[in-house]
Design brief:
heterodimer, A: about 240 residues, alpha/beta, seven-stranded mixed β-sheet, five-stranded antiparallel β-sheet, 6 helices, B: about 250 residues, two-stranded antiparallel ribbon, 9 helices
Chain lengths: ~240, ~250
Amino acid sequence: MKGGAKVVVEQHRHAGVFIARGKEDALVTRNMVPGESVYGEKRIAVEQEGGDKIEYRVWNPFRSKLAAAVLAGVDNIHIKPGAKVLYLGGASGTSVSHVSDVVGPEGSVYAVEFSHRSGRDLVNMAKKRPNVIPIIEDARHPQKYRMLVPMVDVVFADVAQPDQARIVGLNSQYFLKNGGNFVISIKASCIDSTAPPEAVFAREVKKLQEQQLKPKEQVTLEPYERDHAVVVGVYRPAKKKEQ
Amino acid sequence: MSSLRNAAKRKEHKERAQPAARLSRHGLLEKHKDYVLRAKDFHKKEATIKHLRQKAEERNPDEFYFAMEKARTRDGVHLAPTAEANKYSQEELRLMKTQDIGYLQLKAQTEAKKVERMQQSLHLIGAPAANKHVVFVDDEEEAEQFDPAQHFNTVPELLDRSYNRPRLEQLADARATSAGDAAAAAVARIEKKRAAAYRELMQRQQRQEKLGGLAQKMAYDKEVMGKGRKRKLRPEEAGGQTGVFRWKAERKK
């Protein structure tokens, strides 16, 4: 190879996520649709020993809360190859496309977005990716899309609404299997802009517990986002056996 | 014959370097070409000084100049002509300030765009953690017995490396953690480039902050120069800051 490799890709703790170390220093996912960028992100092609090329897409933690949580050292994102994910707050589908990369062709992503404008981008993205099912509906009314979504393994929510915990609880009741997991991004200023962020996070965690969503861990997203936290947990966990 | 020789371009002969023995004793010595440049410059300055000195010596004190018609003295001292103090009106100054602010904002915007583009692929991986990680456990007993390495299913050395803590199973499979020796060599080579990229990113961020702050300050100055009744606040009123004004509330419609 002339000049040696320009970039080295190492596996991440979470399956389906990688870190590219080169001139850039980036979190990447393996591109399911080689040769195409979704939102103008950089792509990195790496040649394997066999001579075939693998293409990765850069996953920007300054734009995606999930990427920021991954780099912040969260223990488990539960989004892994083959998983079924309900993604609330899909927006234009930038992060959704990376989740679709992670779950791979075996898994599926049900992306719910209320706004028609960003929903259009979401739908266009889903045309290229068979494992993404776009749903343009209000996440407050899961009964409207109950015919489209089966039981899922993970619920991811980035809706930035004051009643976020209620929305996630409602969707979990409908679609999340017992012992399934949830990942929620909380923006403190969207819930209560007057209270200190720590208090807001604690209050949200309380609300989640009331919905049978048991939080396991919480990470704040500095330096990528200010006053944001991601809470990961489990829904209706199986009772621990007495030893 | 000589004119013909001048017309054809002759080869420029380069002066040889000093022999190694002399070089080690005297260091790098000046070449003739450089000496000529230095000498020419020196003689030019010498000639200028000589010319000025001559002019001063031969000056005629009775000579008339037109500037004398406007020249004034005060208490026997000659008044040097000064630039007009208020050449521009308040409105003109305000307009000029608007243009300055616009330029600063443009530059700040450019820097912000560049920062954003660089951040796309520079993810601060391996920077010291600035965030907080909370793990929820069931009871106090569990909290007391909490072992981070065991919880994260990794080795204790990797606990500080929050961006990627491979699990024990992954560590056992060496292929997952390193991409081979050739890759390791490549990493060392590109490390330098990456460090430079991060340096540039930091400088651009600082520059953008400075430019933005300056534009804001100038915009405030412009507002102060503008219309509206206002009062300058005392530092104790403005929380220790000086140069803060408060405008009188005015009904717009």
